[in-house]
Amino acid sequence: MTGPSGAPLRVLVAEDQSAVRAGLVLILGSAPDIEVVGEAADGEQAVELARALRPDVVLMDVQMPRLDGVSATRQVVSEQLADVLVLTTFDLDAYVFGALRAGAAGFLLKDAEARDLIEAVRTVGRGEGIVAPAVTRRLIAEFARPARPAPMIDRAVLEALETLTRREREVFDAVGEGLSNAEVAARLDMAEATVKTHVSRVLAKLGLRSRVQAALLAGELDD
User: Fold this and answer.
1) Kindly report the CA angle at 1 between 96 and 54, in degrees rounded to 5?
2) Residue 73: half-sphere exposure toward Cβ, Cα within 13 Å
């Protein structure tokens, strides 16, 4: 996996615990196609470095001083500085939902294996969302709770859905199933680059910041 120009994928690591940050940098640095271009010890520094370095991916811890990871994610995504892969733990569901709303492209548990961390960064670098299976189970459980009110989908979003072309709707539905761009391409007999274009158009039309948000919207529509 390399960046758009064929160069290594450029990653900024944001983690306030120096020992953990050093470990993440060491793991990512072991991949020949990934280059760690910066390290941030808090959310404000993460945003500042993202503006200065314009990495492909920011690996963002959610609990950091000065500015938390959710707020930092919101700024990075809103300014289109990079895609964000959020590091979370089992007991931080509130942060997960906050990061989802902020436009995070993916979620990974802090205790993930090294190979899973590397692959998650590569996946987000390809412009595809990723949610750790354990986090996915928690999200599904939350959305499936009987006591939880049915999600209210904004009228503007429903109207925007009507503007999708047949092909865009097929891509949207496939993303909702959690398929990667390659899998969508195979299912719909399209070039992978064409799928990426359709995904970008779908997100723009629906006013969404990430394909993870698109997948959750698709799930809500199926309820």
Assistant:
1) 60
2) 30
Strand residues in 50-147 grouped as ranges (E): 57-61, 83-88, 106-109, 130-131
Cα–Cα distance, 47 to 69 (Å, whole number): 10
Report CA-CA distances (Å) from 74 to 12, 136, 212, 214.
16, 21, 15, 17
**So where are the chain's domains?**
9-141, 155-222
d(CA 75, CA 80): 8
8 A C-beta contact, residue 105 and residue 83? yes
Dihedral sign of CA atoms 124, 126, 127, 130 in order: negative
H/E run at residue 34? strand 34-40
pTM listed for this prediction: 0.72
Give domain 9-141's CATH superfamily. Answer: Response regulator (3.40.50.2300)
d(CA 181, CA 121): 15
155-222 CATH fold: Arc Repressor Mutant, subunit A (1.10.10)
Tens digits of per-residue pLDDT, 51-107?
Answer: 999 999 999 998 888 899 989 999 999 898 999 998 877 555 566 777 777 888 888
Query: What is the phi/psi pair of residue 41, to 5°?
Result: -100, -5
